[in-house]
Amino acid sequence: MYLWKAAYVFHPENSPEAKEFVRQRMVMLLEGKVGYVIGGLQQMLTKRSKHSKLSKAQRAALRKTIDYCQSHRKAMRYDEYIAAGYPIGSGAVEGACGHLVKDRMERSGMRWTVPGAEAVLQLRAVNENGDWDAYWEYHMQCEYDRRFRRRAA
Q: Which whole number is the average pLDDT over 98-103?
């Protein structure tokens, strides 16, 4: 995450100070204080740049973090998401992708075309969601309509 890059401008990697730097800003983000995080980083950049205490690479890392936060500010409403009960981490999605896709598609010796992989993943998603019986009824009705109703018309 970008906050770690900003932390390493001021503190050694994996140091307790870097961890605290990130923790403080993460708490503010979770409280919906994105503007305070952006403003604080901007202030640190401005103050330290005046005294030439930051290298070009350090200034670039801070600028990148600030720019990221500014451009994604509208999506960083974590306080609202938490209050609504929405997940804010990517772990659930990554876990689902691993279970649904990777576990099935990356078995030894398997080769997939895009259409074949798409078909298998759609069926796997239907099954994993517990919709297999409803899907199968729908599929059979479509097949019946395709085979018999078309002939009658």
A: 81
Token readout for 126 is 């239907």
Q: Where are the domains of the chain?
A: 2-83, 91-152
Whose structure tokens read 């890059």?
5
What's the start-to-end Cα distance of the chain, in Å? 61
Alpha-carbon gap, residue 28 to 39, rounded angstroms: 12
Q: Which amino acid is at 76?
A: M
Token representation of residue 16: 């307790």
Contact 18, 7 (CB under 8 A): yes
Measure the CA–CA gap between 6 and 41, rounded to whole angstroms.
8
pLDDT digits (tens, 9 = 90+) for 6-57: 999 999 999 999 999 999 999 999 999 999 999 999 999 998 877 778 899 9
